[in-house]
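User: Can you predict the 3D structure for this chain?
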Amino acid sequence: MGMNPVKFAPRALALLLATTAVPAMAQDAAPNAAIAAATAEVQIERIRSLDDAGPMLNAVIAYDPEAPTHANEAEEAGTLLAGRTLLVKDNVETAEWPTTAGSLALAGDATGRDAPLIALLRQNGGVVLGKTNLSEWANIRSNNSTSGWSAVGGLTKNPYAIDRNSCGSSSGSGAAIAAGFAWGAIGTETNGSITCPASINGLVGFKPSVGIVSRTHVVPISSTQDTAGPMTKTVYDAALLLTAIAGPDNADPVTLEASRVADYTAGLDTASLKGVRIGVLRGAVGSRADVKALFETALADLARAGAVLVDVEYEAPGELWEASLPVLLFELRVEMDKYLSTRPGTGGPRSLADVVAFNTANAAAEMRWFNQDLFEQALETTDADAYAKNLATLRRLTRAEGIDKLLADNKVTFLVAPTEGPAWTTDLVNGDHFSGGIGAGYLAAIAGYPHITVPMGGVEGLPIGLSIMGGRWQDHEVLKAGATYEKARTAKLPAPTFAQWKPAGE
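Assistant: Here is the predicted structure, written as structure tokens:
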């Protein structure tokens, strides 16, 4: 798809500014056609000036210059999303472009089909504006990777500080929405890949229960943990987007077991935490005094909203970590072989082994910064009995003896913790370096349970999110809790600078 110049009138910009001033809880009213089209025009111009030029965020791989026309048509049809624009992580198939997962191995191999979640998105009036960059192969290729880098899209930069990381693997989706390139984005998560980039880019990110959203025609890692989900500016928008993409899929059996609601926005404006007991995971706060201070402010906000806060003790047992990676590697090999072998056409790799061979043959382009040790380990992880044992261990430790037990024993409805620390300086040579000990999203990720992150402030201009997790299929309740916190929040949120990070006051 071409990157043609798109001109816009000053009036279109004024219309966009007017729509962005609308309070989140009032956004259930659809924009009129003039605003929908004008908004899309301004978003394309922002991509041209901030992604392709200027700070060059590298968040968007491709976009559709005809999106304003599609937005106009969708609004006039009276659809749910009414022409709102979406950017889609480039491991989710869309008919217009190749779906590459960031790898040159798939760069020229368009499937010509929409993933079921994208088909639902379009049916509900969402406009696919383009595809976003990601951590290549959703960050499962190497232990030493740099989040936000792919051979196809290069390095995604953080709009809040362009020398800092956007986290992975939905880095492009996070950076793009923070930069105002679209109304919302589709991210995917196996373990933290929606919630971490949402937290670090100052967004709401919602990882649904596994099964709420179809995974068909999404480049896979894990059959037990993978899910797509919304990344937006507000909780209401996340709930609206989830409503548009949630649904059963006969090709993805876990979706047939899911317990959904018809409208995830219902009750968000009247939701209350009065008398609701919330478990506080003190052990997941980490050692940073600045993050602790933000978290205490968030807890005070929750208490003022009527919540009853209960300190909850939890430390992940060592056997959880011993079982986790072997499960992912076994499922990666099985699911990737299945996906690649059934892609339309005859070009491109047909197995994980083919991908490994491609990377080896194209090492200068693909493996300059980090290797493919996890892919190579996955090819050797073939013991089905060990896999079954490890999976049972994970299910027990994160469900029956994990979230379920923590909720029941402490008589709480939700668990809260900081999502992640502030964005770290990107270092392609040495890879990622997270602030240790912050967050507990792995529990919800491995269990397949819902997890929302909502902005709760910033550290030296870098966003930090609050995680709220609940039991399986409690997606609507978690969204309502997130909306209630969002209204009660007192902390000031940072704004993107589109420049290198500087200490406050300089």
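Residues 384-409 form the longest helix (26 residues). The CA atoms of residues 98 and 110 lie 4 Å apart.
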